[in-house]
Write a structure and sequence with these properties.
This protein has about 160 residues and is of the alpha+beta class. The protein has helices at about 125-130, 130-135, 135-155, and strands at about 10-15, 20-30, 35-40, 45-50, 55, 60-65, 70-75, 80-90, 95, 100-110, 120.
């Protein structure tokens, strides 16, 4: 990939078998296991979670794994200030040519830039999804991935995943 012509990759986020969002990002790397993409905030307008705001101008550097049940998104403001990391619990990513497909499993983890705010999100949505009933192995893998990420975030080893 040359500096003048960055390769583009379409990121497709599925939820319950449907496309939740689709956007184009710049492929930063793909080592066969982990794919890294940089993209502007793809949501419409501002999304205020109370503990962080995603807004136009924010830049997400996203890391997806083919062998792990999560994706980590480093969030920076338009000025480059680190806001933190939003982690989606997902099935392992699948890349086919110019498209990266990831299935969101509802569970999320937020880690603030200074590491003092680590919070589990959307556990109620996960329970309501029925995944534990319809695919108990996937549900167990999702919960294990959330536990692993939270442990790394609280233990200070979290950013080593992104190197």
């Amino acid at each position: 990939m040359s500096e003048n012509s960055a390769e583009q990759l379409d990121v497709v986020l599925l939820k319950a078998g449907r496309t939740k969002i689709r956007y184009t990002g710049e492929l930063l790397s793909d080592d066969g296991t982990r794919v890294a993409v940089r993209a502007p905030w793809a949501g419409g307008g501002v999304r205020d979670f109370g503990f962080v705001r995603f807004e136009p101008g924010d830049v997400f550097t996203e890391y997806y794994w083919r062998d792990r049940w999560y994706a980590i998104k480093e969030v920076r403001s338009a000025t480059g200030a680190l806001k933190g990391w939003y982690c989606d619990i997902t099935r392992p990513a699948l890349r086919s040519g110019p498209e990266l497909v990831v299935e969101d499993l509802d569970l999320d983890l937020w880690v603030s830039a200074d590491g003092t705010d680590v919070r589990r999100l959307d556990e109620d949505e996960f329970a309501e999804s029925g995944l534990a009933r319809t695919d108990p192995e996937a549900a167990a893998a999702a919960l294990s991935a959330l536990d692993d990420l939270e442990s790394l975030a609280r233990g200070g080893d979290f950013t080593a995943l992104l190197v």
